[in-house]
């Protein structure tokens, strides 16, 4: 994306999503619901792309941050009853931010001790962390434990889902194109060289981790208010993998590619529903074919890095 | 020139993308039918865990439901129309039920929803059915919370507390036990609910709970708890947990020389119970929804038809899946329409419906009030003992 047009894009996307949300009554609620999923997945994939793609830290715990955001936002909004559009909007927005912030705190707590690790080791630690969060919620009787938590309000709509998707894209793109943000890419390309140039790799990694976790938390809050029911099982390892697949398929460190991959991978299983039980086999086969033919990601300009 | 090359490179990627999109469109071209019941069939939606971690439950349940739809159509359907069952797989995954139920309701235009086995997935679908005023019948979600989601949500199985009471009566009156110990899985709502109602029922009936111990689902070693229970010399031990732990508990109890009967709820019913517990389970009991050995004509007829179609013996999930579709058809017949609100009223008024799993009456909370079946383990197989009415 051309960085000079980023602000125009942001405002345009928010305005567009607002307009669509006004006309949402005319859209079939199933497709509308899939659209929310697309928006949420874009947030998740783009924010993970900041960690995995731009900073080169392989994280497998994104669903854990999503769970923190989902539960926090749901617990907050469940305290409120029915109210008018403006009040509910304000409550929802604060709940989403609270979820995002708590997820960011979780990201910080995990990030500081673990981001000194690299590659496979980091992947395993983040994987373990994601599972820990899930098990904690599973054992919290206050939020329904393994049975799950009902979310009263269905406040997620087109405006919130795509508005936040646009904000995520804007923040991540502006960040990596800023002077400060070049540090992320430097850390990814060569950590030793980067630190020789005076960049503190751990600080950059933790920053990427915290920002990524914040947006994952927002996505979690949107998810909770779209599905209206959350269980710890919904934030398991497979959910983390699904987000990683979007990033890899879209092309690591390529925001547009990752957005397109998020859209495709949300729609693909839905369009494959007519073939019923063979659906997931075909889905997996397509992934394998795509990875064999485009290892650098669907839309990446760069050739696959020589390893 | 460089830009041109870059664009060419993007194009290669887009060719692949185009292939993927073309694949979508083939799926997209299916004409979405008009919602409602304008056609010549009554569309009924079902969501089940056909794949994923609880696939065996979902597949059993679906087989039962599909058999019921076949039977109904063979008898001419209801209201002069045949049924059309639209089944969607939710992959045993949280997040999926909300999507598929929305699809069934708003895209396929079903008039009622059947599903699911797992309570957490029924809970996810329930608010959507409630908002759209589409009656939903869960065949086998036993958690009390499920039907609390709204007045359009029903179930054809009994709820957890009821089994606790049934087992208390069984222990008192059939096994003639006086001093019983309880070993509860503190991680499971199901186990805690069962234990609570068992204790209340057992004490109210004049029995005594002489010892209580806890474990967490997933534990493998129960020697500490069992040794402590053994010292209080119970006549029997109530183990309201799932089959994996129940099998291990039976095994370790025998090794410690505890020779009193163990008994539990429908969490024991699994073809994996006996392979885990082996001979140690002989003479133990559990309550469940139905037994294929029940000699009543309704059960035998169902077992015969099921075996003819699928070449296997139906389990409780299949029987409940069958009943869920049958009770829906009966409600539509008595309502004289497939309109959601009227079918809901008819479902709420169901009384003494003869299902495969016994006589079903909907109570004020839309839960089925119905008998439970007690099974015992003999020579490694489940044997029918008796039926206990509420």
Helix content of chain B: 40-55%
The total tally of domains of chain B equals 2
Mean pLDDT of chain A: 87
Low-confidence stretches of chain B: 1-8, 13-37
Number of helices of chain B: 12
**Most strands sheet of chain A:** 2 strands, antiparallel
Strands side by side in the biggest sheet of chain A: 1-2
Helix content of chain A: over 70%
Could you state the oligomeric state of the chains shown? heterodimer
Q: Would you give the CATH topology of the largest domain in chain B? A: Rossmann fold
Largest sheet of chain B: 7 strands, mixed
What is the average per-residue confidence, as pLDDT of chain B, rounded to a whole number?
86
Q: What's the gyration radius of chain A in Å?
A: 19 Å
Question: Which two chains touch over the largest interface?
Answer: A-B, 47 and 43 residues
Q: What is the percentage of strand-forming residues of chain B?
A: 15-25%
What general form of chain B does the structure show?
Answer: elongated
Secondary-structure element pattern of chain A, one letter each: HHHHHEHHHHEHHH
Total number of helices of chain A:
12
Estimated share of beta-strand residues of chain A: under 5%
The total of beta strands of chain A comes to 2
Count of individual domains of chain A = 1
Brief overview, please?
The complex is a heterodimer of chains A (307) and B (390). Chain A is 70% helix and 1% strand.
Write the layout of secondary structure elements.
The complex is a heterodimer of chains A (307) and B (390).
Chain A lengths: L5 H17 L6 H26 L7 H16 L7 H30 L4 H20 L10 E2 L7 H20 L4 H8 L1 H6 L4 H27 L1 E2 L6 H14 L4 H17 L7 H15 L14
Antiparallel strand pairs in A: 1-2
Chain B lengths: L1 H27 L12 E8 L6 H20 L7 E8 L6 H12 L4 E3 L4 H14 L3 E3 L14 E3 L4 H15 L4 E7 L3 H16 L3 E8 L7 H9 L4 E3 L4 H13 L6 E3 L8 H5 L7 E4 L8 H14 L5 H20 L4 H9 L4 E3 L2 E5 L5 E2 L2 E7 L2 E8 L2
Parallel strand pairs in B: 1-2, 1-3, 3-4, 4-5, 6-7, 6-8, 8-9, 9-10
Antiparallel strand pairs in B: 10-14, 11-12, 12-13, 14-15
